[in-house]
Amino acid sequence: MVTDLGQPHSKMNRPRILCCALILALLSGIVSAGRAAPSPQASAEGAPQVLKIDPPNWWAGHTMNPVRLLIRGRNLSRARVELQGSGLTVSNVHPNATGSYLFIDLTIDPRSKPGRRSLEFINAAGSVSFPFDVLAPLPPQNRFQGFSPDDFIYEIMPDRFSDGDPSNDNPPQSPGLLDRSKPRYYHGGDLQGIINHLSYLKELGATTIWLTPIYDNVNHLNERERYDHQPITDYHGYGAVDFYGVEEHFGDLAKLRELVDDAHKLGIKVMQDEVANHTGPYHPWVQDPPTTTWYHGSEAAHPEENWQTWTLLDPHAPPQLRSATLDGWFLNILPDLNQDDPEVERYLIQNTLWWIGIVGFDAIREDTLPYVPRRFWHDWMAAIKCQYPRVNVVGEVFDGDPAMTSFFQGGKPRFDGVDSGVDSVFDFPLLYPLRRAFAEGKPLRETALTLAHDYLYQDPSLLVTFIGNHDMPRFMNEPGAGLEGLKLALTFIMTTRGVPMIYSGDELAMPGGADPDNRRDFPGGWLTDPHNAFEASGRSPDQEAVFARVVELAHLRHELEPLRRGKLVDLFVSDQVYAYARLTDRQSVVTIINNAVDPATVEFDAAPARLLNGTTLADRLGDGPPLQVDNGRLSATLPGRTASIYVQAGK
Ligand SMILES: [Ca+2]
Ligand SMILES: [Ca+2]
Ligand SMILES: [Ca+2]
Structurally, how many domains does the chain consist of? Predict the structure, then answer.
């Protein structure tokens, strides 16, 4: 039956899910097929063995009830399951064909008291018990908050930020993977290191942390992925071997909760980086998949990812043209999960709900969004919103075309009838012209031209704007990049529409080429570092100049509501000067950027900024002289490569 379960749903035209009850009906109905016939070898089985249960615990009163358990072990073909403890009911027990997995549904009485229960797996040869905990939900105050345009996100790769706990640098279960001289090895950064520097993030003005994945990675070298014939480690976290584990180089689940709780106490939210497209090559599923359709193919025979994402939004493309993009294995190495297998879908949805609930995360950054069917994202998003209505998601659509990125933002059904439901995507289309303008000195007008495509998005205000991330050379490595351009780029993302994000190190003008050079250690994160950039005294004048600019911009954003929530209105656009207002009912803020080397004088109509004759404006960012609205117009002169943020005097 398990094999049957994996077949037809991908082709079904599923109805839009509008409520939690429907989600449960859908997900539960998938397995009404019942118990599998025992496989031929079952009669020779020994006593049951259980190695792992996913998820290891769950909550009473949860919207996902029953919860589906995936039990990995041996000799499970004829196992029946008995419960020790009250409030739980087992149903729908079905093994896979080889007896190495058992799926069961566990219904938890909403009145169940938190505490340990036990599942006993029994066959003719013997039995084994495994614990299962019913948990008390985390109090929702200051948790599950979602991000908004009020936020400023700071991206951290835990391995590269700070080593707060040298005792986990060389863990007993995964020795020999740490070497700071090798850019693709572990460097020792960890969750404690982030906890130790939350005050730095507070000082910078960050209100949300994006942590790159903290899933458990393989405990030995990754020999499959090689560069210059050398194996690597999976320190980056994008090749998990356990979606329910925390990598031991980073800490453990308790430390992760401590980090999130401490961040919340400081008013900082935490965004989890999740991966639903693929696992690492050493995930136990690869050699022993729970269903025959768990992955798209096998290690021996599978499609290779061909990156043809345009086919996904092409109304003329048949499924055959899209299949390598949706089903292909990244780098021909990373096993591609089949979200059209209902068991995979259920597993991934529950896994997301588990992480949010167990840690208290506020939001999700979702990896490799286009390479997973939007039908899956729709169901996944509906399940998230059902349990955690404020938690939201920003997806990675690594593409410079807003026609591409906007297609994956939810809010309306697209040509295929599917609404992804995904709240936001990263603003890659704005990244490229922004870098060309502020680094290379090419026309600033291109940024306004890109923003002119905002009509394509259901909600451009929630797009996450950025000047770089861990997957591309640093801003400072662009041809022509300098401090002035970097400061202008940061000023731009902190004043235009969207939710600004800074990749750790960019606030220090950190250099770095393509991966892995763009993932250098944060200076001062290690006790032996010669300079500690977490402290003002350890920052060079250049580092301090950019750091101070970010602090200033974050303060202005916090103080001036229009910079966060205001409507964006373009006031003046020329080759290298861009003036725009952010407007709320109460206030106007006018940003003027001169990206030319020479001074520039601009004059424009003040009416679109809702500024009346005689209004006086002061520059809150730079040293610009006060401006006055005269004859309905504003005129300003800016030195080369500077920006001003004008606010009505006295406001
Ligand atoms: Ca460490
Ligand atoms: Ca590990
Ligand atoms: Ca895929």
Answer: 3
